[in-house]
Amino acid sequence: MDNRRVNRDTHRGSLALALVLIATLIASSASIAAETSSSQQKMQVAGLEVAEWLPRSDTPGPWPVIIFSHGFHGCSTQSTFLMKALADAGYAVFAPNHKDAACWNLRAWFNSPDVPFGDPRDWSDATYDDRAQDLEKLIDALSKDPRYRSAPYDWNHLGLVGHSLGGYTVLGEGGGWPHWKDPRVKAILALSPYAAPFIYKHTLGGLAAPVMYQGGTRDIGITPLINKRNGAYPQSPAPKYYVEFDGAGHFAWTDLSPTYQPAIIDYSRAFLDRYLKGKPFPKVLATPHPGVTVVQIKQ
């Protein structure tokens, strides 16, 4: 892979996305405010700005807990379509803003990553460890907070969801970086994850929770590394899942386009239901159908 091309494409995509994403998120926030199903709130927890989506109060418990990690230059509300769908399905969802969050800060889109994405050899468990610390602080604080520590909140069934650099974050927390590993994590949903550092250093064998990878045929620079020989999926221990969406690009997992949202919700919810609620994985989702080019499952 041409490292310069990866970096150039990453920055070009980020800059082109900025104004569109801001406008989309404003519209999305207005729409969610009018909803009468799951609720969304903003709050401060352990020094973090956190978005919260909760099921309706009359939703039977227990409510497994989901922590979402956004992408580089994304933010806690970049993927509200999925967060809201999970809350409607009976999950308590929390998403922190990491220090690189830029949805509402146009100038931040011009900031370069801490370490270039094009060369995973320069990454280690010190790279973006502030993101891992954010998740740990949030989990620790919420699980001890009287408002959240007991029923209907189910801290015995904790799942992590991450997009792009957030996918890197949750894979690291799940055991991709041994130093980050949190045994409380029971499921990992990696959406177009930046997994190259783990692939290069062969650390994904340390994952201690079931994982689902999602990618797209137009997700240049990310998806081709997931399912290649000795890529992220082959290196990961079972149970593991891989789903590839036909024509999906890197931002298909944000609120920018509704095209893939129903299928993303279906697969995400089915995986989390399997490992956080004990439900069987639907047979209808186990084979490719229109809009999905690949489904691989090893249980």
Number of strands: 9
What is the succession of H and E elements? HEEEHEHEHEHEHHEHE
Portion of residues in beta strands equals 15-25%
Share of helix, binned: 25-40%
Write the layout of secondary structure elements.
Elements: H1 3-33, E1 39-45, E2 48-54, E3 63-69, H2 80-88, E4 92-96, H3 129-144, E5 153-163, H4 165-176, E6 185-191, H5 196-201, E7 211-216, H6 223-226, H7 232-235, E8 240-245, H8 261-276, E9 292-298
Parallel strand pairs: 3-4, 3-5, 5-6, 6-7, 7-8
Antiparallel strand pairs: 1-2, 2-4, 8-9
Features:
21% strand; alpha/beta; disordered N terminus; globular; Rossmann fold; 299 residues; 8 helices; 9-stranded mixed sheet
Report on this structure.
The chain is α/β, with parallel strands linked by helices. It has a single domain (3-298), classed as Rossmann fold (3-Layer(aba) Sandwich). Helix content is 33%, strand content 21%. It has helices spanning 3-33, 80-88, 129-144, 165-176, 196-201, 223-226, 232-235, 261-276, and strands at residues 39-45, 48-54, 63-69, 92-96, 153-163, 185-191, 211-216, 240-245, 292-298. Strands 1-2-4-3-5-6-7-8-9 form a nine-stranded mixed β-sheet. Strand 3 (63-69), helix 2 (80-88) and strand 4 form a beta-alpha-beta unit. Helix 2 (80-88) crosses helix 8. The longest helix is centred in the N-terminal third of the chain and has 31 residues, at 3-33. It is globular and about 45 Å long. It starts with a helix and ends with a strand.
